[in-house]
Structures
1.
Amino acid sequence: MTAYGQFCPVAKAMEILDERWTLLVVRELLAGSTHFNELRRGNPRMSPALLTKRLRTLERVGVVRRTGDPSGRTSYRLTECGEELRPIVESLGAWGVRWIGELGTEDLDPHLLLWDIRRTVPVDEWPRSRTVLAFAFDDVPQKVAHWWLVVAGSEPDVCDYDPGFEVTATIRTGLRTMTEIWRGDRSWVDALRAGEVEVVGPDTVRRDLPRWLGQMPLAAVPRPTPIVSPSGQVG
Amino acid sequence: MTAYGQFCPVAKAMEILDERWTLLVVRELLAGSTHFNELRRGNPRMSPALLTKRLRTLERVGVVRRTGDPSGRTSYRLTECGEELRPIVESLGAWGVRWIGELGTEDLDPHLLLWDIRRTVPVDEWPRSRTVLAFAFDDVPQKVAHWWLVVAGSEPDVCDYDPGFEVTATIRTGLRTMTEIWRGDRSWVDALRAGEVEVVGPDTVRRDLPRWLGQMPLAAVPRPTPIVSPSGQVG
DNA sequence: CTGTATCCTCAAGGATACTG
DNA sequence: CAGTATCCTTGAGGATACAG
């Protein structure tokens, strides 16, 4: 928060918002997280001390209000001022998904992926009875390769251990491929055709599964048209 | 540009954009600056080494293209990718002007103010003949208290020394007051009534002067409605 | 005009362990 | 659950001078 020495509103805004992690904490709050550990889960590489510090700053400048919620737990909520950051965070996301397609291996995180999927799972598309999808990622250490997504009732659950229910279908693929599909960088059909995803389960499930999982909301953002030269090469 | 370890497009965008000064350099490019020293003038507290570094990064990620312009001078221009940051920078400005009203003394800078005014002076509103406005700021060191704005033809000029032409009118006020008027935090009439601005010159000029100078574009952004309690106090 | 080159400091923030 | 406490490092970036 070192001052820029400018009266320009953009500079004044950035004094607050350009600090590392700040807008990612706001992103979590916009997505509906309210508790300290929810915010941590959304930003696992952030130390708790730093999260505290950022929340204090955001509170001081009026973006966040810290309250005890009904049950007495501490909870953080965006003020009107903070809520008005929504279009900014959304535009940043749209810009990011359009122009920063290349993901490093560092950017891939199964925990974040599954939690993000869980957040927006279209439960209505799923069968009424308990349904369990198993994920097996073949490009990460065994320890973090297996995940389960359980939909029973209206609340989806994510586990990194076998919850013991019968598995409806298993998705074998790379974490990278699954992430790219989720982000809308490539389509299910494309990945299936390329043999990079294998869905083990009944045909009906294999057909419905893409609709069950869906894609992240930003996946719908149109991508820049690649410039194709007459020779057919991408320029 | 330390990675966040997240595939989220907001995180990927912020890896680039949350570095100190970055979006302020982009702001200058969006405003039409193309040369190294123009970019420096817009961000005087930024060291040239750091500006170089930021420009290299922006070039590497595809936001900026570095070219020699017709005359051979180096020039920096936004790519399509960089141009798409415009709505983001504008939203940040709108948010900043709405929610960060308090300016520290550090934020006041006569050079930046005059250059910003110059940038958008509505020359058509001015007399056809050469017109010179003198600014005398009474709350800053003598050295930086006196400025001249010269409009002759279509190109306005700013000087921090007496250019020698006959002065059409002199504006005596605080740098803070002038900055607040420019930002739209307060109105001319309000500041005049409060006796915080004195315009020395012909009546016609005193009347027209607010229209000559105008306000920064973001001044038009509506401000949050203060919550007024029944007792009349601002909450 | 468009940068390099150096130096220096300091504080941001990552890692880890611990507590009411 | 919601943070503190501590340590440590490293590189970000401010200041200044200089160069092609």
Note: The two ends of chain B are 40 Å apart (CA to CA).
2.
Amino acid sequence: MTFSEENYLKTIYHLTTLLDSEISTNAIAEKMETKASSVTDMLKKLSEKNLVNYKKYQGVSLTDKGLHSAKMIVRKHRLWEVFLVDKLDFAWDEVHDIAEQLEHIKSEKLINKLDEFLNFPTEDPHGDPIPNAEGMIVKVEKQLLSELTEKQAGVCVGVKDTSSEFLQYLDKQEIALGSKIEVMSKESFDLSLKIKVGNKELMISNKIAANLFVKKV
Amino acid sequence: MTFSEENYLKTIYHLTTLLDSEISTNAIAEKMETKASSVTDMLKKLSEKNLVNYKKYQGVSLTDKGLHSAKMIVRKHRLWEVFLVDKLDFAWDEVHDIAEQLEHIKSEKLINKLDEFLNFPTEDPHGDPIPNAEGMIVKVEKQLLSELTEKQAGVCVGVKDTSSEFLQYLDKQEIALGSKIEVMSKESFDLSLKIKVGNKELMISNKIAANLFVKKV
DNA sequence: ATAAATTTTTAGACAAAGCTAAAAATTAAA
DNA sequence: TTTAATTTTTAGCTTTGTCTAAAAATTTAT
Ligand SMILES: [Mn+2]
Ligand SMILES: [Mn+2]
Ligand SMILES: [Mn+2]
Ligand SMILES: [Mn+2]
């Protein structure tokens, strides 16, 4: 499988986890910053290899084989991110681009030994689940901070947006995975929140809250 | 730089360390198991980018820029090999193919952090030197076991042939980097050797001896 | 239900990197 | 020093993945 094929499969997989339905050509093109015509070409190729179910004009979905391949790529991506953060001491906002390259290294033995070396982590540095060697994923129940109501509290367990800007904002506010966050009050006008992290209080916009996953406590 | 360009540079570098002179198109083609015509195409491209000095029909050599790039690729290859053996517990005959992939990952920060994580090794699992971040190489004086005469002894410090077959043969005979090897006698007819490793004596062909580097003691 | 807007596919081109076959240059042999 | 053998380059073709522009299908609006 080429890097390009792998990137398409991964994109289709990610889009599927957001909207569980047939994925449109345009959605793929937008996410991959490429042209719809290129996507169509690739969908034909992936369909030929039985990695996707594709009927023209009807969108596309992953076959069992395609789903498994996609999960193995995601597994590699996230395990390498754990390696970079835990072992090489990278910050959580620096690892994605490198993992985009490392996820294409082909060696089952390598990834399984890496998994063992890292002590079989179930989540990556951004709180995303890591599929195991069989493709099984441990689902952690979590919700967006923006869904909590006043006086509710939760532990930060993940981020939706993984951009450097957002992650660095969280660093600046000393919000990390594991931080306990309490909703002090909610402004009905713009849905902004006053929250308490540790013993500090701060105001965050709804946009921030809608990109932080918490587990209610 | 593409994977392909990097592989050509690395090959030219390796050939240069063997025969310090202009490298021929055919030599490159043979080593890379490709066609001479493909090599010519690539040499033009590398020359255009000022990575090699190329005059047609006159062979090729690396420019300073090309030499540095080649060394950085070799550095990555060998550091990843150390990682695989020391941290992930791979055998020394299993790591080359994986390192062939990993050497193309682009991130200076990654390779320098890996270097630190591994404690700045100067040699890879096969005894080959690892260029530092500036491209400097610590040369260890070593010679082939086949060059020793009767009664001389040395410590095994490297292998010339790094094929799985050869490395596994050494494993079977319990010869590893660091093993002390003593030449008991040498057969003048075929240059085969009777050697002592640890407290075991064994016979080895000249071909074996000509692929083992030792440091005289 | 028809027209307009949007999405998706097709057709045709291009760059990268490889190949084969033929031509040109160099090197070795007679 | 010619001729023969070898090496290297050129010319032309193929595949992969991309693009633009135009055509076709689908969806939305009137
Ligand atoms: Mn990532
Ligand atoms: Mn991640
Ligand atoms: Mn190697
Ligand atoms: Mn090596």
Note: The mean pLDDT of chain A is 96.
